[in-house]
Write a structure and sequence with these properties.
552 residues; alpha+beta; six-stranded mixed beta barrel; elongated
Length: 552
Amino acid sequence: LGGKADFWLMRLTEVVMTIPTLIIIISLVAVLGPSIVNIMAVLLARQVRQIGIMKAIGATPWQVVGLYYFSVASLGALAALVGVPLGVLGGKAYAQFAARELNFNILTTQLPVWVYLALGAAAILMPIVVATFPILKGTRVSVLQALGDHGLGASGEGRGWEAAVSRSGLPRPLLLSLRAAFRRRGRTFFTVGTLALGLTIFATALNLRATLSHTLSQSAATQGFDVSAFLGHAYPIDRVAEALSGVDGIQEVAYWQGGSSAIVYADGTESNVYPIVAPPVPTRMLDPVMLAGAWFDSDQAMSVVVNQQLTKVEEGLVVGRTLDLRIGARTERLRVVGIIKEMGALPTAYIPQQTWLRIVGDSYSTTNLRIVASPEAKAAPRQLGRRLESQLELAGLDVSSTVRKAEHLQVIEDHLDVITNFLLASSLLALTVAGQGLISTMNINILERTRETGVMRAIGASLRDIRTMVLVEGLVVGVLSWVAGLILAIPLSDTVSKFFGALIFQTPLDLTVSKAGVPMSFVVMVVFVALATASAGAATARSSVCDALAYE
């Protein structure tokens, strides 16, 4: 039991140490999102004439660029004043969580000065890097072009697309919405990519949860017993059976043999000691998932099956290999006939019970009990385990441990929830950033079409018509993001499942696609589109027809 606890502690440590890397990736998505680019693009577009005037009175291009770099750096410094303290508090909270899960004490919560300096520098420099392209593009305009600028909507980008859409035969309002959605194709695809990435992470988290849940269910189905008990020594089966006769709630008991073993290498040295289990063949108590080879046939003597954990610590364990296995005082040559997948198990070897009896020669003793609970006792396996352990100890038997299958799987599930819940929270953070980008993109698109919407309202279009067009525009961007997110989620989910399977269970997991992934990601997309279009529609409603027509 101690070995199994150490095994899970090591696996959980690796998982907990992986999560900060995911946090860094999510934070980079937040910083590299479209919000900074859009803010700088609209700011520069609205100040083109001011840029022209500054250049006309003698400002150099680098002086103009420096003004905007200073603005971005100031925003980054203000963000650092808020974000760095919150980040430090969040890091300390996560450290406390990790310490509680991994059972160690935190010796200090004081961060070195360089950490604060690094966080502050990142808050200032990373937005500058992201904003460099729109700043250089917006300030490259000549004096003549700047002074003759006619506002945000003057660009001719996307005219070829507009002509193609106009010839499609679609209804006029839909044509206007499609034209607006792809008027600035670079901005649109950047927003689609960011929102698709958030939806991809969200769908991946749901798929990983479904995969882990399926794996747990699969593991439960391989075990046809409810409670297992491990004895410290081999005891006569008659004595054990007599002790169990006084325990209520037992429907069936299987007496297995087993103990410890070691692999003897060619140079005469031995491996670490590994558990060896000898179930009867055939048995209804165990129906393992095979990764390679096959489970024992009734006539397969002098053969061994290993789990995937043992193949990870002992290189070269493949089906068909023969190995020398020391069991007790004897060393026997056995042939590997299969590799099984087990969750939460120590590196273990299995041999048929008849092989064990041939080697050890004791057919009257047992060390390993597999117990099927009666229907009324299945609802309370903990009480059955306690009664079982108490009765065995009362009979003078040394009980190493009792393991309730349901509780064991629940412990694994609780640890896995740490991963899936974190991924879901991270995906919501990424979606929030992407949603902010969509909102800013929609508002900039509306701002660029201020005079256009003023003309439409002047010739009879209602605010409801304008808002419907804005909604269709937002849905076009949202649906593209949703489809792209679902397509990207499949390979990413498969990669993440294999990564966490190898990290935790020493074997890749088979991907299970969440049934809730498609509808839930669609609902999330619709919510963000609704927020974006509501914000853009409110901006349109605040502007009168006269103000819209006079806008530059």
